[in-house]
Structures are given as structure tokens and as C-alpha cells.
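User: My instructor asked us to take a sequence, write out its structure as C-alpha cells, and then describe one feature of it. I'm not sure where to start. Here is the sequence I was given:
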Amino acid sequence: MDPKIRQLFKTLVYMGKDYPVDLGGYPKFIEMAKRGFRNTRVENDHDLTQALAKGNYIIKGMF
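Assistant: Let's start with the prediction itself. The C-alpha cells for your sequence are:
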């Protein structure tokens, strides 16, 4: 696993602690994050760049 992907996941997990309880709370957020990481195929550098950009966009939207 690429270290950038691991850092992105750790950041999402940390930020997920503030996920609203009425929407499922932290456990639901973690499950959604895991599902998103599992369903994203990264086969080359271009895919990696796109996946990281999407993850960073999600993080910026959470602020």
C-alpha cells in the first residue's frame, strides 16, 4: 500500500469522529470509508493521483 493512501485513510478516520450521530455516527463513517477504499481500483500512477485528489476533496469538504 502506498504511504499516501495510508495517510489519507488515517486522516479520514480521525476526521470521522465528528460525523453526526443522527446519520449513523463514527461506525457508519468508518464502514463507508472502508467501502470507498476497497472499491477504488488503483492500477497505475494516474489512478493513484486521481484517487488521492478525490480523497483530498472529500477532506476539504468536511471542514
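For the description part of your assignment, you could build on this observation: DSSP finds three helices and no strands in the chain. Try explaining in your own words what that tells you about the chain.
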